[in-house]
Amino acid sequence: MKHLLRKVIVGLLSLAIVLGALLFLPAWTFHYWQAWIFLFVFLAPEVAVVLYLVKNDPQLLERRIAGREKQKVQKIILLLIRVTFVAVIVFPAVDHRFAWSTVPLLATIFGDFLVVLGLLIIFLVFRENTFTSSAIEILPEQRVISSGPYAWVRHPMYSGALVMVSGVPLALGSWWGLLTVIPMALVIVWRLLEEEGFLAENLPGYSEYRNQVRFRLIPLIW
C-alpha cells in the first residue's frame, strides 16, 4: 500500500507540474485566473478519485498505473490522445496570451461545470467496473458490466472524457480552443471502435450486451 501511495503522490504532483507548465508557459503570465480555477477544478476531483480507489479498489488503481498497450495501433492511438489533449490545454493558453477570444464569465463557469461533470462520469465508471484498465485487455476473471452508466452507453468512460475535454477550452476562456476538441473526439471514437471489436471477439457475453445497449458514446444519438 505504501508503494502504491508513493506512486500516486508522484503521479499527481507530476500531473500538476505538467499542467501548470502547459498553461502558464504558452500564456507567458501567471495572471490567468481561468487557468488557476481550472487547475483546482481538474486536480481536486482527480485527488478525490485516487484517494477513493486507494481505499476501496487499489487493484484497479494498480492496473491503471501499470497498464501498457501491446498492439501497435493502440500505441498510436494513445500517442494521438496525448498530443490532442496537450493541444486542448495549450491552444487556449496561447489564445489568452494574444487575446483572441472574449469569453463571458457564465461560459467559463459552464466549462468548469463540464470538466467536473466529465470527471464525475469517469468516477462512476471506476466505481461500477473494477476491470477498467488503462490498456485494452481481458483479465481472467473479467465479465461484462451492464449496470450503472453502462446501462446508458457501452463506453461511458469515453463519454465522460469527451464531456470533460469539451469543457476545457471554455473553462480556460477560449472560443478558438473548441476547435481542438474535434480531433480529440475523432481519436476517442477510433479507440472506442477498436476496443469494441476486441471485446466482442474476446469477452464472453459482450456481443449480447451490444444488442442490449444500442448506444456507444452519446445516449439516444450514437
Can you put this structure into words, describing what you see?
The chain is an all-alpha fold and 222 residues long. It has a single domain, classed as Four Helix Bundle (Hemerythrin (Met), subunit A). 70% of the residues lie in helices and 0% in strands. It is built from eight helices and no strands. The longest helix is centred in the middle third of the chain and has 27 residues. The termini are far apart.
Can I get a quick summary?
The protein is built from eight helices and no strands. The protein has 222 residues and is mostly helical.
CATH classification class: Mainly Alpha
Number of helices: 8
Structurally, the number of domains stands at: 1
How many runs of DSSP E, i.e. beta strands? 0
Helix vs. strand class:
mainly alpha
Uncertain residue segments: none
SSE topology sketch:
Blueprint (H helix, E strand, L loop, with lengths): L1 H26 L5 H24 L1 H9 L5 H27 L6 H24 L27 H16 L9 H22 L3 H7 L10
Helix pairs in contact: 1-2, 1-4, 2-3, 2-5, 4-6, 4-7, 5-6, 6-7
Feature tags:
222 residues; mainly alpha; Four Helix Bundle (Hemerythrin (Met), subunit A); 8 helices
